[in-house]
Design brief:
The protein is α/β, with parallel strands linked by helices. 46% of the residues lie in helices and 14% in strands. The strands form two sheets. Strands 1-2-3-4-5-8-9-10 form an eight-stranded parallel β-barrel, surrounded by nine helices. A two-stranded antiparallel ribbon has the order 6-7. Helix 5 packs parallel to helix 6 and helix 9 (232-240) runs parallel beside helix 11. The relative contact order is 0.17. The structure holds glyceraldehyde-3-phosphate (G3H), 1,3-dihydroxyacetonephosphate and zinc ion.
Length: 323
């Protein structure tokens, strides 16, 4: 058993307490490889933001769970040696079984999500409670989920969404003992979040549901998944250099700013990073067809991703200068 504290990691409890009090959200960025991790780390160190580093089941399968864990451990050496260290949580994104959560906790994760949102309510309560019981023995924090987000990624796939029913939240939080709760208020995973006709604006998020949740569980940390903005400049860049992402659309930054000021303490961003990396690599390939050194295209992609992260922390989530 490797305890996260021995790696210099933090759980999310204090991070969320401060975010709630300060009216901002802590960024949760997914990583699958070295360059993404470097960009996330550099971006958060430069902007002095607390950080939740997320690893999905798909990331563990892609990059090897042992290698990823040592990458995270290496990242913590860099954080520890930084002039201005930041709090970092290592978090399992969309854990789908008790066994997976236990395996992550045993190898140094400081926070896990158990996503029972696709299960019948009572089964979600039972599975989440079981994970909380084990996690809390090790002072690891747990994120549960109520309501279903649509969208397709490797390990998370639902054709249709349904909003969180605020009437369930007190019962769920009370019975399970979770430390934070992901809710569904209209976001979805991936780069196609809304079906809109050209020229039309996407529908607003259901802030009325969020407000009712806040009324029922005041001061309780809420998590927003599917929160990429799918920035048009990167979609256009991808399409300009041979990609085909027509109709890609995300959550407006204004709505994210509003969410970050509420009881939403954690905002999950993965697709935006994927888009930046893809856009830059496509551009390098198109403009320098003779290039074949991965450092010459992964390097610029890493730099652009670093800048994106700094901008999000500073201008959208409000987490910059909070560490
Ligand atoms: O919400 C899912 C995350 O974006 C991770 O996606 O399962 O494709 O790694 P993934
Ligand atoms: P996006 O697909 O909007 O980046 O959402 C990521 C996410 O929710 C990870 O759990
Ligand atoms: Zn998610």
């Amino acid at each position: 058993m490797t305890h996260y504290r021995d790696l210099g990691l933090s759980n999310t409890r204090e991070m969320f307490r401060k975010a709630m009090a300060g009216g901002y959200a802590v960024p949760a960025y997914n990583f699958n490889n070295l360059e993404q991790l470097q960009a996330i780390l550099t971006g958060c160190l430069k902007s002095r933001s607390p950080l939740i580093l997320q690893i999905s089941k798909g990331a563990r399968a892609y990059a090897d769970q042992t290698l990823l864990r040592y990458l995270a451990e290496g990242a913590m050496k860099i954080v520890g040696a930084a002039e201005h260290p930041i709090p970092v949580a290592l978090h399992l994104d969309h854990g789908d079984s008790y066994e997976l959560c236990v395996s992550c906790i045993e190898t140094g994760f400081s926070s896990v999500m158990i996503d029972g949102s696709g299960l019948p309510y009572d089964e979600n309560v039972a599975l989440t409670s079981k994970v909380v019981e084990y996690a809390h023995k090790h002072d690891v924090t747990v994120e549960g989920e109520l309501g279903v987000l649509a969208g397709i990624e490797d390990a998370v796939s639902h054709a249709a969404s349904h909003y969180t029913d605020p009437e369930d939240v007190e019962d769920f939080v009370g019975k399970t003992g979770v430390d934070s709760l992901a809710i569904s208020i209209g976001t979805s995973h991936g780069a196609y979040k809304f079906k809109v006709k050209p020229g039309e604006s996407p529908p607003a998020l259901r802030f009325d549901i969020l407000e009712e949740v806040e009324r029922r569980i005041p001061g309780f940390p809420i998590v927003l998944h599917g929160a990429s903005s799918v920035l048009p400049q990167y979609v256009e860049m991808i399409n300009k250099y041979g990609g085909q992402l027509e109709g890609a659309i995300g959550v407006s930054e204004d709505q994210l700013r509003r969410a970050a000021k509420s009881s939403v303490c954690k905002i999950n961003i993965d697709s935006d990073g994927r888009l930046v990396v893809t856009a830059v690599i496509r551009k390098v390939f198109a403009e320098s067809p003779k290039e074949f050194d991965p450092r010459k295209y992964l390097g610029p992609a890493r730099e652009e991703l670093t800048n994106l992260i700094i901008r999000k922390n500073r201008e959208v989530l409000g987490s910059a200068d909070r560490a």
